[in-house]
Specification:
By secondary structure, the chain is an alpha/beta fold. It is built from 10 helices and 12 strands. Bound molecules: fe (iii) ion (FE) (2 copies) and zinc ion. One fe (iii) ion (FE) binds next to loops.
Length: about 290
């Protein structure tokens, strides 16, 4: 079964998120660990977490994908911004252990003119400070559109980070379809080649989640404006290939489209319809 969901508000806690996901017929979801634009985080209620885990287990669903706040910039030129990033990251990793074994996704950061090498050094520095050998959470670096001085606009830049992280087995990658398209990767005409590049640079085993978004802008625009599935420059046919690709089809797909509950439920239903269940795949493979 296709694993798909959207971003759900975390303001009412874990059980509420789980129930909201079920309402939209989602079997995974994303949520912000705290206000996406701010810093404060609500205390976690272990009873609430327990009820969520029970609900999720009963359904047979697996991982969820938490998202760090957008304001987290590990490679800012301002020491206080870097300190906020480190403290938030470390605190989020502690919070993630209430729900062991999930994903925590973050934007690598913007080097704001210090250059890619210095940016990479600062990002890896934060990771080396915060990752712990006994953590059960896998941290995901997100592929970025390359807006401004964003790091992660190419698979090579993410490789540079990985190469400087000691506990790199704790790190995976989250591929955002809008971002890679805006960064210049042709996932419409040449998905196979893009995934080959990914494999050669990062290794497909690092790929743990997909943010599934259409784009308002052409390939290589470095803009990062998400569109609803099928309403942008990537288009529905490309998404059909993406969700069914052997290297991607078992990953969690997270919608970050500009939509409302009804719209997300519609996108989830539409993509489920396009998903070939395993028997169809093996049948076509043996032909
Ligand atoms: Fe993101
Ligand atoms: Fe994203
Ligand atoms: Zn984006």
């Amino acid at each position: 079964m296709l694993k798909i969901g959207n971003h759900i508000s975390s303001s009412k806690g874990y059980e509420a998120m789980g129930r909201q996901a079920l309402k939209l017929k989602a079997n995974t979801f994303a949520f912000f660990t705290r206000n996406p634009r701010g810093g404060s985080a609500k205390a976690i209620d272990p009873e609430d977490v327990r009820r969520f885990q029970e609900l999720w287990k009963k359904q047979g669903y697996d991982r969820i994908v938490a998202h760090a706040p957008y304001t987290l910039n590990a490679c800012s030129d301002k020491p206080e911004v870097r300190r906020f990033a480190r403290e938030t990251f470390a605190d989020d990793l502690k919070r993630m252990e209430y729900t062991p074994g999930n994903y925590y996704n973050f934007h690598p950061g913007s080097h704001v003119g210090q250059g890619v090498e210095e940016g990479v050094r600062l990002i890896a520095g934060m990771l080396n400070e915060c990752l712990k050998p006994d953590q059960t959470t896998t941290v995901l670096l997100e592929t970025m559109a390359g807006k401004g001085s964003e790091i992660g606009r190419s698979f090579e830049e993410l490789r540079m980070i990985l190469d400087q992280v000691t506990l790199s087995e704790k790190i995976g990658i989250c591929l955002d379809t809008c971002h890679v398209w805006d960064a210049g990767y042709d996932i419409v005409e040449n998905l196979e080649y893009v995934l080959e590049e990914f494999d050669n640079t990062l290794g497909l085993s690092r790929l743990r989640a997909v943010h599934i978004n259409d784009s308002m802008n052409p390939k290589g625009s470095h803009k990062d404006r998400h569109a609803r599935i099928g309403e942008g420059t990537i288009g529905l046919e490309a998404f059909e290939r993406i969700i069914n690709h052997p290297s991607l089809r078992n990953l969690p797909f997270i919608l970050e489209t500009p939509n409302d509950d009804e719209g997300w439920a519609g996108e989830i239903a539409a993509l489920r319809k396009l998903y070939l269940e395993n028997d169809c795949i093996s049948r076509t493979e043996t032909l």
